[in-house]
Design brief:
alpha+beta, four-stranded antiparallel sheet, globular, 9 strands, ACT-like_dom_sf, 2 domains, single chain, disordered N terminus, five-stranded antiparallel sheet, Alpha-Beta Plaits, ACT domain-containing protein, ACT_ThrD-II-like
Length: about 210
């Protein structure tokens, strides 16, 4: 492969805890061509703040031909579901990158963003109903899995308390050209849980 890159993987014993942390070495742009026909990619993950989560997330990268370059996570930057966003720089042959992403998802790792070709669009929907009673975290997880989307932002409004009807504006990142499929999956979930789905709000903009 030419010059072998330095593996900057953090010590798994320290895992995901411990404040803002960056382990980048030399600066690498997403999908920059490198020696030997491999490219550098950045994947953004969402991990639970528990021991072993980071190590579990890194295993599918190595198992599918990826070489870890750097890791950055910031405990103060919490995702809408209260998890920790982690940005991983890696390199691999272009024809193996989809295998890396698939391996992460099959391992139960939530991939928020993976390279420029993934999640090329954003949509926003408003969910109205007994969101808390219907387990909002489960609703978001099933939207992500069923619509093959990533929750970028969540705004919950409950003027009469969480035990009453509330509304949530959810901004999602989806694959380019798949907004109709994503919305259909969200409608189906809304019907199952008795939620009203107000959509679409394209590009994250309010109607």
């Amino acid at each position: 492969m030419g010059n072998e890159p330095v593996d900057r993987e953090r010590d798994p014993e320290t895992d995901i805890g411990g404040g803002s942390e960056s382990e980048s070495g030399t600066e690498t742009e997403t999908e920059t061509e490198t020696d030997g026909g491999v490219r550098a990619y950045t994947v953004r993950l969402e991990l639970v703040d528990e021991p072993g989560e980071l190590l579990r997330a890194l295993a599918p990268i190595a198992d599918n031909g990826g070489n870890l370059l750097s890791i950055h996570h910031e405990r103060g930057n919490i995702t809408p579901r209260g998890h920790i966003p982690v940005e991983v720089d890696l390199e691999c042959p272009p024809d193996r990158f989809d295998d890396v992403v698939t391996g992460l998802r099959e391992a139960g790792v939530n991939v928020i963003q993976a390279g420029e070709e993934h999640y090329g669009e954003e949509i926003s929907v408003v969910l109205v109903g007994d969101l808390v009673e219907n387990d909002l975290s489960d609703t978001l997880s099933r939207i992500e899995s069923g619509a093959n989307a990533a929750v970028l932002d969540l705004s919950l409004t409950a003027p009469e308390g969480t035990e009453s009807v509330s509304s949530a504006r959810v901004r999602l990142a989806i694959d380019s050209g798949r907004s109709n499929e994503a919305l259909e999956a969200i409608r189906s979930l809304g019907s199952e849980k008795g939620l009203t789905v107000v959509e679409p709000l394209l590009g994250g903009e309010s109607a």
